[in-house]
Amino acid sequence: MYSGTVEDDAAMVNKTPLVLSANLLTKLSTARKSKPGTTTPTDTTTTTVPTTPTDTTTTTTQPVDTTVIAPTPLPSNYSIVMPSPRYQGSEGSCVAFAVTYARAAEQYYKTGAVAYSDAVNVFSPEYVFNQVTMPGCTGSAVTTSLDLLKNQGVCTWQSMPYSTNNGCSVLPTTAQFTEAANYKIASYSRLIDSDKVAIKTMISKNHPVIATFTIDQSFYDAYPGFIWKTLTGNSGSHTMAVCGYDDAKHAYKAINSWGPTWGDAGYIWIDYDFFPVAASYYTYVINL
Where is this region: Disordered (predicted)? Predict the structure, then answer.
């Protein structure tokens, strides 16, 4: 089993994005209203104002509507319907699997499908990985792979099946490029890995979250019912698509690319609080 995630934008990794809070916006607004260094002179002119008859009309004050519209509560557990977990083998193609898993789910829900098909809505990691891989088939970067989906799209698994037997140098044919153009994404967005509400909201709306993790031996040894909660050592970086959550487990569910016999039928549960610890890089969602 292989991981194979290359660090995205080294200068930006672990940089905290600017978040404009309501408190900060209030302070900025107050500062603009009381700009220092400007004094308004006092008007001392005396003006005689004619007397106006008193208006004795009675006005009925309308009650103030104090109703607070609460956000729709999230379900306590949710799982996106995903394609079957596949096996990446000896190539460092985890990123390609994660982004094509996510693209498959987006297509599944967009079209109202009732099943996954390699010819229709399961997409080719081979198409992505062979165009963005590092030398030696050792890995790739998430943003580079997502940019490829934005600029080119991706063809179906049936059109370009994944294989570790032909290396990673086989490039798409004209027909595969043409098919891929039908499955472009519009863009992709970044999420803060510690924002549990944002991540759960995306999942509950059927948008898998692409996340890269620092993994350890306990990750390799995952089993049914295992919840990943601690990180001991560093066995490299690995990218997966987070596709579910369960408040009873206090954990997210992620689909891996090490086949259906690994972990929990090809999936792993990751503790909510541990998630931002293990998620060593940015997390992303696809926008169609």
Answer: 31-61
